[in-house]
Write a structure and sequence with these properties.
The complex is a heterodimer of chains A (290) and B (306).
Chain A: H1 3-35, H2 42-60, H3 64-90, H4 95-117, E1 132-135, E2 138-141, H5 142-164, H6 166-176, H7 178-183, H8 188-213, H9 220-235, H10 243-260, H11 264-267, H12 271-286
Helix pairs in contact in A: 1-5, 1-8, 1-9, 1-10, 2-3, 2-4, 2-8, 2-9, 3-8, 5-6, 5-8, 6-8, 9-10, 9-12
Chain B: H1 2-24, H2 27-51, H3 59-76, H4 81-103, H5 108-128, H6 130-133, E1 139-140, H7 149-172, H8 174-184, H9 186-191, H10 196-222, E2 224-225, H11 227-230, H12 233-246, H13 252-271, H14 276-290, H15 294-301
Antiparallel strand pairs in B: 1-2
Helix pairs in contact in B: 1-7, 2-7, 2-10, 2-12, 2-13, 3-4, 3-5, 3-10, 3-12, 4-10, 7-10, 12-13, 12-14, 12-15
Classes of the chains: A mainly alpha (290), B mainly alpha (306).
């Protein structure tokens, strides 16, 4: 394989995984942008959905990608319940309480999964899992291609909902100016509920995808929280639109480091930290207060 | 005066018990006590950061950094023990200031995110530099004080005593007022002339130093560690749960939390393996929702110790 081909392959691989990053991170960004709430347990919903997909696939043989709408609705309800039961009580309390609470939930769910499913890695072996299509000597994994397309469709759908529907306009209004939104009669309670429902729903779809092209294990959700945070910090906290390019940057950088650096696959797990630091340095330079 | 004297009697009794404990018990309880004191140091150090309204997930990272720096300098460079501890502390100070400088000017959320990522990235570095750290196989050092548990106990009790002294200083000096002002309203505090960034940075650095000391002690005490153990997220989780449950922003709270939780954990480790981290998660959630002032707060309700 000559250098150009290798370069192209690395680029394609990076782009193909960035869809799943964008889905996971857009939920995180939406929850932060609207509810002003950093959900450290976000990745755990992704992990739960991945196991859900695996169980349904192994018992009924249903393709996870076909189950997407059902899973989205189920996890939307779960997200709404999560908001009602756990998020709402600490929304008025400080950052410290919010962070510790969601972190506690994350630890709880991780270890619950470890207890129930064990530490072994699991995957869904759909028939097209290892199938690839080749163009100009570059391989496109069919499953990854499907998943990228589905992510694009879902993100476009989200942006259309945010831009064009009444619910979307309410969500944007609450996110930009909570008090103003309340003055014109928008019920911020239900907006928060819907935003967190969508966020958890998107995480669950990313989780289903993850069980096809990567693998599920109890810690996978936490890794996605970290990567999602890197994307969200780069895009600017709460900026749903910036998530796309930030995810592309993360996916492509990881892929290039993995291919071109000696022992690179291990190091690519550290890229997200550099992205967070880089994002902070940029933001830092804009803060002139102290 | 009467209500104060009871408090002092209790504190003196606890101190005497802490000193004579290793002489009146067997090896198993000595070992348990050493780990409890180590977690008390970690919990107290986590609270240092919390006092400045910082949610630090970096404690796992500093624990592992302390363990690895001390072990590597001790083994590869033949440093004596005290020098390897000193190097670990110096490196921790540099790293803490660098991390703090990059993140503490922004809202606390950014700091929390960066500190969470920090611990994970150190794990990757420890795994990826096998020539220095021994990689996934880990690193082994000769046992501390030839395995004499009484001396180990003395060392960790000394570190805890130092942490308690620092904590009492923070409670009684200008730090206390600055921290209270910052927790109530950061913007008002900075308008009043409190240099919030500097206070945050110093409390974060102090807290990093004590996590590092706990880590350096840990590796020499257990004689061996691997990256997945030294940089295990559960270390940070345990220290924050102990501080939250015992009572934030106090000296007694985190230490009390460490003792109570370590006893519960040890009991559960015998009865149900694996399960105890689930309990830690639950306790963190329950502590935030139902026990905002921790065990110390419950105690204060009964008034007789206040």
């Amino acid at each position: 394989m000559y250098a150009g081909q290798l370069f192209g392959q690395a680029l394609v691989n990076g782009i193909l995984v960035s869809g799943i990053y964008a889905l996971a991170a857009s939920g995180l960004a939406l929850a932060f942008g609207v509810v002003k709430f950093l959900n450290l347990a976000h990745g755990e919903f992704l992990m739960l959905a991945a196991y859900f997909g695996i169980i349904v696939f192994s018992t009924y043989g249903l393709d996870p990608l076909l189950m997407t709408p059902v899973v989205f609705i189920l996890f939307f309800i779960l997200g709404a319940a999560y908001y009602k039961a756990l998020v709402k009580p600490v929304l008025k309390a400080g950052e410290l309480n919010q962070l510790l609470l969601t972190f506690g939930i994350s630890i709880f769910l991780q270890n619950l999964a470890l207890l129930i499913f064990g530490g072994t890695i699991r995957t869904i072996s759909v028939p097209y899992r290892t199938h690839t299509i080749s163009f100009w000597g570059i391989n496109f994994g069919t499953a990854r291609l499907f998943i990228l397309l589905l992510s694009i469709v879902l993100l476009v759908l989200l942006y259309q909902v945010l831009q064009r529907t009444r619910v979307g306009r309410s969500i944007r209004a609450v996110s930009q100016e909570p008090e103003g939104a309340a003055l014109v009669g928008i019920d911020s309670e239900s907006v928060y509920l819907i935003a967190l429902g969508i966020a958890v729903g998107f995480a669950s779809v990313a989780g289903m995808m993850l069980s096809i092209i990567f693998q599920a294990e109890p810690m996978v959700g936490f890794n996605f929280t970290l990567k999602g945070l890197a994307v969200v910090v780069m895009a600017g906290l709460g900026n749903v639109y910036g998530v796309i390019w930030a995810s592309l940057l993360l996916g492509i950088t990881e892929s290039f480091i993995g291919v071109f650096l000696p022992n690179g696959t291990g190091w690519s797990g550290a890229i997200f930290f550099l992205m967070i630091l880089g994002g902070l340095v940029v933001r830092q330079s804009r803060v002139r207060t102290i | 005066m009467k209500k104060y004297s009871l408090k002092y009697i209790l504190v003196a009794a606890a101190a005497i018990l802490a000193v004579i404990f290793p002489f009146i018990t067997g090896e198993y309880y000595r070992h348990l006590a050493i780990l409890t004191l180590m977690y008390a140091v970690l919990a107290l150090s986590w609270d240092f950061a919390a006092r400045a309204e910082l949610v630090s997930f970096a404690h796992t990272g500093f624990f592992g950094l302390g363990a690895y720096t001390s072990a590597v300098t001790f083994l590869k460079l033949d440093f004596p023990l005290y020098l390897s501890f000193t190097v670990a502390v110096l490196l921790t100070i540099v790293v803490a200031i660098a991390l703090g400088y990059l993140t503490l000017r922004l809202s606390g959320i950014y700091f929390a995110i960066a500190s969470l990522a920090f611990s994970e990235v150190l794990l990757v570095v420890a795994l990826q530099l096998p020539k220095v750290t021994g990689g996934a196989m880990g690193i082994s050092v000769p046992s501390l004080f030839g395995g004499m548990r009484v001396y180990c106990y003395g060392l960790i009790l000394g570190i805890l005593a130092l942490a308690v002294v620092v904590s009492l200083y923070l409670e009684r000096s200008h730090f206390h007022l600055a921290f209270s002002a910052m927790r109530t309203s950061p913007s008002v505090a900075s308008v009043l002339g409190v240099n919030t960034v500097r206070y945050r940075l110093s409390s974060f650095t102090l807290s990093a130093i004590f996590s590092c000391l706990a880590g350096a002690f840990y590796v020499h005490y257990t004689t061996t560690t691997i990256p997945y153990e030294a940089f295990n997220l559960n270390i940070g989780v345990a220290s924050m749960v102990m501080a939250v449950l015992g009572g934030l922003y106090s000296t007694v709270g985190p230490v009390l939390g460490a003792i109570v939780l370590k006893i519960i954990e040890e009991y559960m480790r015998v009865t149900i393996p694996y399960g105890y981290m689930i309990i830690y998660g639950l306790l963190l959630v329950a502590g935030i929702l139902f026990l905002p002032k921790g065990l110390v707060g419950v105690q204060n309700k009964w008034k007789f110790l206040k």
